[in-house]
Design a protein that fits this description.
There is one protein chain. The chain is an alpha+beta fold. It has 4 domains: 7-239, Histidine kinase-like ATPase, C-terminal domain (Heat Shock Protein 90, 2-Layer Sandwich); 245-405, Ribosomal Protein S5, domain 2 (2-Layer Sandwich), CATH 3.30.230.10; 426-554 and 646-651, Rossmann fold; 557-591 and 599-621, no CATH class. The protein is built from 22 helices and 25 strands. Strands 1, 2, 3, 4, 5, 6, 7, 8 and 9 form a 9-stranded mixed sheet that branches. A 5-stranded mixed sheet has the order 10-11-14-12-13, with helices on both faces. A hairpin with a 2-residue loop joins β3 (148-157) and β4. α4 runs antiparallel to α6 (140-146), α9 runs parallel beside α11 (366-386) and α13 (449-458) crosses α20.
């Protein structure tokens, strides 16, 4: 990242200026193609932006920024600025050519108005607008306009400043020139419609991650991000990476120990398609792979991912055989062997991308598989031959993975065989539910036998199952599968879920559609919860992606004054309630369950206590689940009518990977730094 203009950037600016003056790539009103109107967007916004929750809200920003990225990829822009304003407004600026403003031959209105108010109207359907574009469908800015209660576009073009404003996608007036301009570019300002979105608060961290990623993917571009929502203390970031995805790999591996210092990198064109690949192995056990097509992240992969993975396994096996690093009788390395500890990025830029789904989750162009395979195979083979020390380290890493795979297969077979011999007997500690309909069943994974006992007594046996864990499970971030399956608590969890694990995972065999982690509200409980989250994220990831994983929220306090009683889930809530109750004398105690008392005796004791402390505010602090009796645990934490459950989701895989690397990896320094900076927000930590 740099803020100073380098000699290379000066050349880029000169190139951009020359490109802007080219007549053979004229970007005018005739470049805009129209397919249909905007009405469907407001009726079914999820079809266009994925959802009306947080992810869809942020998608609006990405659609507008992607237009600037398209200008940069076409060689007409080198800077983008994104600013979060007060009152929920967002401003995005780029120094590209500016949206055309001439009268469109079909719509008979300004091309700017056509782009902003017609679905599938844009310079990305032919007509010479763009050769390479991330916004293939051309719906981006018009969808943003349709889903905004207010939108304004300011175009600097043809030595003038052109402006048009909109309300819920409808123009408030015609496009008009309001002044002179010496440059070119587009400024889009919009405010999402709160009647459409369930959430309207933009997340600074999420936006920063996305903008940083886009700067990595577009070498030479500068992206400025500013948050002015505070009014008094604006936050600013400036991203610029000359190294492109090679620098991205280095950043992704900053919390791991690389197995080889030299990062493999290739950037090559083939048949009007640009293929860019970077990779480096580390000492971890998980693959971190990111696929992009025209700067759009494809979380489900696609043909470019298949081409890369196929070539990687073939080239490594060929090299290992040639160098006698694999014995004659040994089997070839599998795809899983060659991907253990791999951090890799494949980025392709093509003229006619075929995505599956509006959110572009998967690339479908068949020819891209061969392009990536061909370029990567040739260049990676040369890399291995020219870097024998790095090649030997990579093959050694893959060989260890192969040995661990065989050991894990044996361990997994042992578990399944044992289950079969015992008639698929479930773990002895599991208190199963009576229902066999997975969609209505839920499994509570509970910390400790004491809490497990209370949960078993307090639950609804028809649909709630309880699996108590003894102590802290193994940290799976630093362990292979064979070692994991030797751990009784993990083995019991695998058998209880019924899905198997890793590549043999089958979500159709899931026995409970809600898996609920229930731990104490203390440091040990938080640690156990993190260990379990790591297990599910690394080895049962489809359960997280499918929304099957939850975290229970037991109360921290019970507050009583006279006959009035409340369960409280945070210190802030406690302080507010005490103030509302009028303050006064406060009696604090830590609750412990009374054993051997009948229900009548408990009621009598409570009535006596109420009379004794009628004017006092009595606060009981619950440090552990085991301190609650079964009725209290049911009432506060397990009753579907009263309980609070947090659903675990992962919106950004790269950020989640980094978080787990920091929290559960072997490097102490970044973990200490993370804890120091996040300590004040620990109750609201997002995984």
């Amino acid at each position: 990242m740099t803020e100073k203009m380098t000699e290379k950037q000066t050349k880029i600016q000169t190139k951009i200026a020359a490109a802007k003056s080219k007549k053979d790539s004229e970007y005018g009103a005739e470049s805009i193609t129209v397919l249909e109107g905007l009405d469907p967007v407001r009726r079914r916004p999820g079809m266009y932006i994925g959802s009306t929750a947080s992810s869809g809200l942020h998608h609006l920003i990405y659609e507008v920024v992607d237009n600037g990225i398209d200008e940069a990829m076409a060689g007409y822009a080198d800077e983008i600025s994104l600013t979060l304003l007060q009152n929920g407004m967002v401003e995005v600026w780029d120094n590209g050519r500016g949206i055309p403003v001439g009268i469109h031959s079909v719509t008979k209105v300004s091309a700017l108005e056509t782009v902003m108010t017609k679905l599938h109207a844009g310079g990305k359907f032919g007509g010479g607008g763009y050769k390479v574009s991330g916004g293939l469908h051309g719906v981006g800015v018009s969808v943003v306009n349709a889903l905004s209660e207010y939108c304004k576009v300011e175009v600097h073009r043809e030595d003038k400043i052109w402006v048009q404003e909109y309300k819920i996608g409808k123009p408030k007036a015609k496009v008009k020139a309001v002044g002179k301009s010496k440059g070119t570019g587009t400024i889009v300002t919009f405010k999402p419609d709160p009647t459409i979105f369930t959430e309207t608060e933009f997340k600074w961290g999420t936006i920063l991650d996305r903008m940083r990623q886009q700067a990595y993917l577009t070498k030479g571009i500068t992206i400025n991000v500013e948050d002015k929502r505070d009014g008094h203390h604006p936050k600013k970031f400036r991203f610029h990476f000359e190294g492109g995805i090679k620098a991205y790999i280095k950043a992704l591996n900053q919390h791991n120990t690389p197995k080889h210092e030299t990062i493999f990198y290739i950037d090559k064109d083939i048949n009007d398609t640009k293929v860019e690949v970077a990779l480096q192995y580390n000492d971890g056990y998980n693959e971190e792979f990111f696929a992009f097509a025209n700067n759009i992240h494809n979380p489900e992969g696609g043909t470019h991912m298949i081409g890369f993975h196929t070539a990687l396994t073939r080239v490594l096996n060929s090299y290992a055989r040639k160098q006698n690093l694999l014995k004659e009788k040994e089997d070839n390395l599998t795809g899983d062997d060659t991907r253990e500890g791999l951090t890799a990025i494949v980025s392709v830029k093509l003229t006619d991308p075929q995505f599956e789904g509006q959110t572009k989750g998967k690339l479908g162009n068949a020819e891209i598989k061969n392009y990536v395979d061909q370029i990567f195979s040739e260049t990676f083979t040369i890399f291995l031959e020219e870097h024998p020390r790095e090649a030997e380290a990579i093959i050694a890493k893959c060989n260890l993975a192969a040995q661990a795979r065989i050991a894990a297969r044996t361990a997994r077979a042992s578990i399944l065989r044992k289950g079969a011999l015992e008639g698929m007997t479930l773990p002895g500690k599991l208190a199963d539910c009576s229902s066999r309909k997975a969609e209505e069943c839920e499994l509570y994974i509970v910390e400790g036998d004491s809490a497990g006992g209370s949960a078993k007594q307090g639950r609804d046996r028809r649909f709630q199952a309880i699996l108590p864990l003894r102590g802290k499970i193994l940290n799976v971030e630093r362990a292979r599968l064979d070692k994991m399956l030797a751990n009784n608590e993990i083995k019991n969890t695998v058998i209880a879920l019924g899905t198997n694990i890793d590549e043999q995972f089958d979500i159709e065999k899931l026995r409970y559609h809600r898996i609920i982690i229930m731990t104490d509200a203390d440091v040990d409980g938080a640690h156990i919860r993190t260990l379990l989250l790591t297990l599910f994220y690394r080895h049962f990831k489809p359960l997280v992606e499918n929304g099957n994983l939850y975290i229970a929220q037991p109360p921290l306090y019970q507050i009583r004054k006279g006959k009035e009683s409340h369960w409280i889930y945070s210190d802030e809530e406690k302080d507010k309630l005490v103030k509302k109750m009028g303050g006064g004398e406060i009696e604090e105690a830590e609750e412990e369950a009374e054993e051997g008392m009948s229900a009548a005796e408990e009621t009598a004791a409570e009535e006596a206590e109420v009379k004794k402390t009628a004017d006092k505010i009595h606060i009981q602090r619950y440090k552990g689940l085991g301190e609650m009796n079964p009725d209290q645990l049911w009432e506060t934490t397990m009753n579907p009518d009263n309980r609070i459950l947090l659903q675990v989701s992962v919106e950004d895989a790269a950020r989640a990977d980094e978080t787990f690397d920091i929290l559960m990896g072997s490097d102490v320094v970044p973990r200490r730094k993370f804890i120091q900076t996040q300590a004040k927000n620990v109750q609201n930590l997002d995984i």
